[in-house]
Structure formats: structure tokens, C-alpha cells
Amino acid sequence: MSDAPHLLIVEAPYYQQISDELAKGATAALDAAGATYDRLSVPGAFEIPAAIRMNIKAMELVGGRRRYDGYIALGCVIRGETSHYDYVCGECARGLMNLSLDYSIAVGFGVLTVENEAQAWARASLDQGNKGGSVAEAALRMIEVKREFGYFPR
Q1: Which residues belong to the active site?
Q2: First vs last Cα of the chain: how many Å apart?
Q3: Where are the chain's structural domains?
Q4: CATH of 6-148 among 3.10.20.340, 3.40.50.960, 3.30.420.10, 3.30.390.30
């Protein structure tokens, strides 16, 4: 088995251009680290935790497939005129944290929760916040933490 971490990037492309920019940052960081990855698109941020849990369950049921060492959640939720924003943001974050704690998975949380598109771009742009890159680096570090605790071999 290779030392290179293998991750699943779960993307919610509701705001396609912003998610694409987040993905560019994440994949550049993973490529620089020599990691491998697969990408999966889901309808929105609310669905990201469910997709990751489906993958975990599939790995429990299906032998012989390479498991993911970690996950990266990417997307953007922009506040609108209703409370829908609060539910989507809160449940996405809670779902990812629950998965992280319940299954000891490494998760990079790259779902932007912002007031407007300008804030999203300030965080997503490769030449500004590059949150895609920083959350990929966070996931890679948490994979290393798991290895330090002996979850899987180097």
C-alpha cells in the first residue's frame, strides 16, 4: 500500500464558480503533497455529510476497495432572506463534526458560510484566502495525526 494519502473531495457546486475555485486550491495542495483523490459532486452543502456517511457505510459493506484516508468538504452557502441559511450551515457543520468524532475520520471543512458573494470570493480565491488549499492541508494534517496514533500504517 502506498504511503500517499487517498482522499475523497465532496463538492456542492450550488455556486459553481466559487466551488471550482475552492477545488482548484484543494487539488493543488493535495498534488503538492503527493496525495491522491477522487471527486464527488452532491446537490448542496446539506448533502455533504450524508454522502460521506454513505461512503463510510459502503466501505464497511464492500471489501476489496481502497478506503479513503480522509475527506474534504467543499461548497458555499450565502445568506438569503430566510432562515434556510442557518439550517443548512448548522446542519452541514454539525453533520461533518459528528462524522469526524463518531468515525475518527479526517475532514477538511471547506464549506464557506458567508453573507454575500464578495465574502465568498475573498475566501475562495487562490490569490486571497485560498480556503480550498488550507482545508486540504488541514485534512492531510489530521491524516498524519491518525497515523501518529496508529490508525493505519505509513
Answers
A1: 84
A2: 9
A3: 6-148
A4: 3.40.50.960
84-129 pLDDT per residue, tens: 999 999 999 999 999 999 999 999 999 999 999 999 999 999 999 9
CA–CA dist 153, 133 (Å, integer): 25
In the structure grid, which three cell numbers stand for residue 105, read together? 475520520
**Tens digits of residue pLDDT in 36-64:** 999 999 999 999 999 999 999 988 887 65
The model carries a pTM of: 0.94
Residue 44 near residue 75, CB atoms below 8 Å: yes
Closest CA to 73 of 55, 96, 103, 53: 96
The DSSP bridge pattern shows strands 36-41 and 6-11 to be: parallel
